[in-house]
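Quick note —
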Amino acid sequence: MSDPILKVTDLSRNFDGIKAVSDLSFVVQPGEIKAVIGPNGAGKSTLFNMIAGVTPPSSGEIHFQGQRIDALPTAKRAEMGIARTFQNLQIFPEMTVLENVMAGRHMSGDIGMMRAILRLPATVAEERRISAEAMELLGRFGLKGLATTRAGDLSFGQSKILELARALACDPTLLLLDEPAAGLPHAEADEMSRVIRELNAGGMTVVLVEHNMRMVMSISHDILVLNNGQWIAEGDAKHVSTHPDVLAAYLGEEEDA
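Predicted structure written out below.
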């Protein structure tokens, strides 16, 4: 087995004496889709925020591609190849669809966001390249015809796809998806599943936090189950779906499990 792309060791985060995540350890292998499931308060969002660099851990270590990253800022982790989406959409509603994706590309480009805004002469060539790459991404996800549309005018499902396209514009190695199916009807959730499978088939490693058990069980190679910030089970869909602790704590609460 190859070295893990992500390794979490004894990770904990305390908030006012309460452990949101407690001594959590797991690995993510290159090229897999790993889901993290659990009810509200299980510690999933806190875990994502620690991996992405939004929240510092109280203790423990995070290694990405063999390098320890738990003390690095978010921007540095993005430069290294970690991108994420959010449960609550983080698009720029007043910008066009194309500009939103270009904003993601600027995070890993050579010119930087401020120089792009100033439109310095030296940035023009790279701006054109970034625009072309952004248009290619929009075409890949069926949004090319909406490139000049104000992002705030998109449907909720289209906005979810736009945020995913913007994350991919950073050219990540590891993609963190925070409830990509939340709020989507079945048909659009199925389309999101198809998109994630396609990305994974192209070599993308995905860590997925999701309440939609239909999606989780159908696309995940490995599933990590949390309860009150603690590890309670881990394995493939068959193992997790028959684990008594998981059935008691989670799947019994999901109407569409």
